[in-house]
């Protein structure tokens, strides 16, 4: 059973969070509460806590301050809950490498997904060593697994209409939060990556197959052939027909 510290100065909000899910069934136990980050640090230093939930409901500024103070002392997993669905707030949360950001109004399904994700991390850390996750994996990239899932999904569904919003819903992440994580990890936005993968696949099909242009457009997710032509020329500097002819000449 992993011990949880809930940082929330609002007693009513604490109780709502406690009753939202069956914590023990999920493998967690809200061991204690703290009104402020200063109160939480004592528990962290004692190594008694496996996960910290910080409420942003009443004051996201105070919650962010708590997150910052904790991050100065520990790599313990943090989930921020009840915050505004605003890009600037989510982006700031990313700088503290939180495990999840669940915007207000918080739904049970979102919290369960976040807890299950942390559970996998903690279980994996326990199987590798007896040390807590934030000590054994500090040199590793905690975002890599979710980014790899996003990239794999794109590769396997290039012929479909893919959006970051759809992926965020499937993976139970805030859309702006996942988008910023992806950009930080890949040095390009999700849409830039998606376009790159569509165009590179189209180039490969033009080079190695005799598929018609409209078939290739459909294969890489474009239902409007004119839009495919426009995107392909902007990406390569040549039309699809010109690109194919160049490949034949240089072959």
Would you kindly provide a written description of the structure presented here, covering whatever features stand out?
The chain is α/β, with parallel strands linked by helices and 251 residues long. The chain has 2 domains: 2-139, Response regulator (Rossmann fold), CATH 3.40.50.2300; 143-251, Orthogonal Bundle (Arc Repressor Mutant, subunit A). It contains 13 helices and 5 strands. α4 packs across α9 (175-186). Mean pLDDT is 82; it is low at 128-140.
- Please name the fourth-level CATH homologous superfamily of the largest domain: Response regulator
| Widest β-sheet, arrangement of strands | 2-1-3-4-5
Quote the CATH topology of the largest domain: Rossmann fold
User: What's the tally of helices?
Assistant: 13
What's the rounded overall pLDDT mean?
82
Order of helices and strands: EHEHEHEHEHHHHHHHHH
**Shape annotation:** elongated
**Low-pLDDT residue intervals, each spanning 5 or more residues:** 128-140
The count of strands amounts to 5
State the secondary-structure class: alpha/beta
Examine the secondary-structure arrangement and name the CATH architecture of the largest domain.
3-Layer(aba) Sandwich
Strand proportion, as a percent range, falls in 5-15%
Radius of gyration: 23 Å
Determine the fraction of residues in helical runs and give it as a percent range.
55-70%
Largest β-sheet summary? 5 strands, parallel
Tally of individual domains: 2
How far apart the termini lie comes to: 62 Å
CATH class of the largest domain: Alpha Beta
Keywords: DNA-binding, Transcription, Transcription regulation
Organism: Paenibacillus phyllosphaerae
GO molecular function: DNA-binding transcription factor activity; sequence-specific DNA binding
GO biological process, one term: phosphorelay signal transduction system
């Amino acid at each position: 059973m992993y011990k949880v510290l809930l940082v929330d100065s609002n007693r009513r909000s604490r109780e709502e969070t406690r009753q939202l899910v069956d914590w023990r069934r999920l493998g967690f136990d809200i061991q204690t509460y703290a009104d402020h980050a200063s109160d939480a640090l004592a528990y962290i230093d004692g190594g008694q806590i496996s996960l910290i939930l910080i409420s942003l409901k009443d004051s996201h500024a105070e919650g962010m301050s708590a997150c910052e103070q904790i991050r100065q002392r520990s790599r313990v997993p943090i989930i921020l809950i009840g915050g505004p669905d605003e890009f600037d707030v989510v982006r700031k949360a990313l700088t503290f490498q939180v495990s999840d950001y669940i915007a207000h109004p918080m739904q049970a399904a979102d919290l369960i997904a976040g807890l299950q994700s942390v559970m996998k991390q903690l279980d994996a850390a326990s199987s590798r060593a007896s040390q807590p996750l934030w000590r054994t994996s500090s040199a590793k990239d905690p975002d890599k697994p979710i980014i790899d899932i996003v990239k794999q999904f794109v590769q396997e569904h290039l012929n479909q209409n893919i959006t970051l919003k759809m992926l965020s819903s499937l993976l139970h992440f805030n859309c702006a939060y996942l988008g910023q994580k992806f950009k930080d990890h890949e040095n390009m936005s999700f849409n830039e990556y998606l376009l790159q993968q569509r165009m590179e696949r189209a180039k490969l099909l033009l080079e190695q197959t005799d598929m018609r242009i409209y078939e290739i457009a459909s294969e890489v997710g474009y239902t409007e052939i004119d839009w495919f032509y426009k995107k392909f020329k902007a990406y390569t500097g040549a039309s699809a027909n010109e690109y194919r002819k160049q490949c034949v000449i240089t072959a």
